[in-house]
UniProtKB/TrEMBL annotation:
Main location: membrane
Topology within the bilayer: Multi-pass membrane protein
Upper classification of the organism: Bacteria, Bacillati, Actinomycetota, Actinomycetes, Propionibacteriales
Protein name as catalogued: GDT1 family protein
Organism: Aeromicrobium flavum
Pfam family, one: GDT1
Subcellular compartments: Membrane
Membrane-spanning intervals of the chain: 33-54, 66-86, 135-155, 167-185
Length: 186
């Protein structure tokens, strides 16, 4: 059980202010909270399971710089898509929430999974799995990430009460672009 608490705490703290929370907040402006939590929850469970099971193998065969380039490109794509959404109706002051659907869950889950590849929490989960039982590390890291996601979704919904959706999307586009450039350059 020690592994569960260590992994949960480590992943939760690592996710605070991370791109995962930014994505959850951004998705919460477009999809229902339930859709975001389910999509990201499934993706984080799968990602953390893979991290715990094959961490050593991935570490030996895929250089970290390759994963950073892929993640950088993904964030530039997120920035472009988010910025593109700003070109719409100038009177878009109200939020249009997409109904819960399987397609929305898959969209959220795949986007989250792509962004998490090579992330520090994935690497932390891999490292912990070399020291503790992969099962308990998987449970703990997934729990820590889920708590972080739920917190971000709730915060995202609150932000919309004080800021127009266009402002939230503009800030998200800038942050996604900055993350993408930072990963590609740094």
């Amino acid at each position: 059980m020690e592994a569960v608490f260590i992994a949960a705490a480590l992943v939760f703290v690592a996710e605070l202010g991370d791109k995962s929370q930014l994505m959850a907040m951004t998705f919460a402006t477009r999809y229902r909270a339930r859709t975001v939590v389910i999509g990201m929850g499934i993706a984080c469970a799968v990602i953390n399971l893979a991290s715990a099971l094959v961490g050593d193998v991935l570490g030996r065969f895929i250089p970290e710089h390759v994963l950073e380039v892929v993640a950088g490109v993904v964030f530039l794509v997120f920035a472009a898509v988010t910025a593109w959404s700003l070109r719409g109706d100038q009177h878009e002051d109200e939020v249009t929430i997409v109904p819960h659907s399987g397609k929305a869950v898959i969209t959220v889950g795949l986007a989250f999974a792509a962004a998490e590849l090579g992330d520090k929490t994935m690497l932390a989960t891999m490292t912990l799995a070399t020291q503790y039982s992969w099962f308990w590390v998987w449970i703990g890291s997934t729990a820590g990430m889920l708590v972080s996601i739920v917190l971000a979704v709730i915060l995202g919904k609150q932000v919309l009460k004080v800021l127009p959706v266009r402002a939230v999307h503009a800030v998200a586009a800038i942050l996604f672009a900055a993350l993408g450039i930072w990963l590609l350059v740094g």
